[in-house]
Amino acid sequence: MATHAVEANFDGLVGPTHNYAGLSWGNVASKSNVNAVSNPKEAALQGLAKMKKLADRGYVQAVLPPHERPHIPTLRALGFAGSDRQVLEQAAQADPAILAAVSSASAMWTANAATVSPSADTADHRVHFTPANLSAKFHRSIEHKVTGRALKAIFTDESYFAHHPALPSVSHFGDEGAANHTRLCAGYGDPGVELFVYGQAAFNESAPAPVKYPARQTLEASRAIARLHGLDDRHAVFAQQNPAAIDAGVFHNDVIAVGNGSCLFYHELAFLDEGGVLSDIRARLAGTELQPVRVSAAEVPIEDAVASYLFNSQLLNTPDGMLLAVPGECREVASVSRYLDSLLQQNGPITAVEVFDVKQSMRNGGGPACLRLRVALRDDELKAINHGVIFTDELYNRLTTWVEGHYRDELSQQDLADPMLLEEVRKALDELTGILGLGSIYDFQL
Ligand SMILES: NCCC[C@H](NC(=O)CCC(=O)O)C(=O)O
């Protein structure tokens, strides 16, 4: 009999400094909304509403905490000194771009928090976690330490869970976590095929690479993660992302493909070698047939896929098929809306579509799939985790009250220098670790 397991979705709770700083070259939405005034309260409530809707349908939903921002220890490491207030003041004066980078709420996109390999795939049969170094962007490269602390505070039992430090933080080992990793399997408890998608081979200068925008993930990083997690050749496939897709604004593979169970939903331009990817998966997938759902450029031009974030959807099992949880923007782009209608007529694995409003996050290039980290857990593993982060009606109510009490409904780039903001954030986060039962994970708490 197959082992029973579930997929738990760990959504990032949007932090109180959610703002639009245009920090991500290659991410079209981030660049085009630079300097817009954000609404952190609305952003956090939109995220909570998504979690609530999915929890209400019976999915195992959990939350990962936001990070401490602005991050004063990083500013100190860069030479700003004095009291916390003076550090802020100096940074704001000397280099507002640095202040913006250390103030980003980007840890909300937990698809980039880590790569997770379920125990059915790994050599020691534990669930393995490696926080992503996110070395391609300075504002994201400062996330992995606290991410690692949060994951260790949740997945505490070492007989079930193994934690690795992030890979060396240099471009050769650029790693963006689960956004470039998807798992195909029969059931969540069965051995699966982990598909690692990379943008570039770092140690081979003649290999194909994008020319306009950076490739954030390297083959060498993906291979290192597979080694660390104890995945042998039966459980890992490495595929190069189409460089042309990166140059069209597909900065992570989850902007152009998503997999769940035996289904791979993808755009024809997602991979450099589409046929090779499918046959590599098929050769390894046990107990089920791969069900590819391929979207052609004639149906949905790649620009429309990027503008709508069609593929940055959550693909979830339902009793009679799969649900595609899409961002609202999908109904605003004509080709995509038409495609979604036709998808439901196809008699394929995807049998339902539901729209989620995560506009605040979308304006920084993060859709429903970016906001969640998937962790497949056997029943005994699920039991072993710290349950303070599991979503219930009670937690939803507490977090909603917490957001309403601590978050601003407007934040501009100038506000990032406000010393009151730093105080508000620390007060809020200190309370949050109590609500979630995480102990001390932030630098200001240590
Ligand atoms: N998976 C979605 C990640 C989106 C994220 N955006 C940002 O960091 C934009 C932040 C800003 O521009 O203020 C990124 O590009 O890594």
Automatic annotation (TrEMBL):
Entry GO MF terms: N-succinylarginine dihydrolase activity
Reactions it catalyzes: N(2)-succinyl-L-arginine + 2 H2O + 2 H(+) = N(2)-succinyl-L-ornithine + 2 NH4(+) + CO2
EC numbers, comma separated: 3.5.3.23
Domain of life: Bacteria
Active site: E176, H252, C370 (nucleophile)
Pathway participation: Amino-acid degradation; L-arginine degradation via AST pathway; L-glutamate and succinate from L-arginine: step 2/5
Keywords (A to Z) from UniProt: Arginine metabolism, Hydrolase
Name of a matching Pfam family: AstB
UniProt-listed SUPFAM superfamilies: Pentein
Signal peptide coordinates: none
Binding positions for substrate per the UniProt entry: 21-30, 112, 139-140, 216, 254, 364
Gene Ontology biological-process annotations: L-arginine catabolic process to L-glutamate; L-arginine catabolic process to succinate
Subunit structure and binding partners: Homodimer.
Described purpose of this protein according to its UniProt entry: Catalyzes the hydrolysis of N(2)-succinylarginine into N(2)-succinylornithine, ammonia and CO(2).
PANTHER family the UniProt entry points to: N-SUCCINYLARGININE DIHYDROLASE
Family membership noted in the UniProt record: Belongs to the succinylarginine dihydrolase family.
Name recorded for this polypeptide: N-succinylarginine dihydrolase
Species: Marinobacter vinifirmus
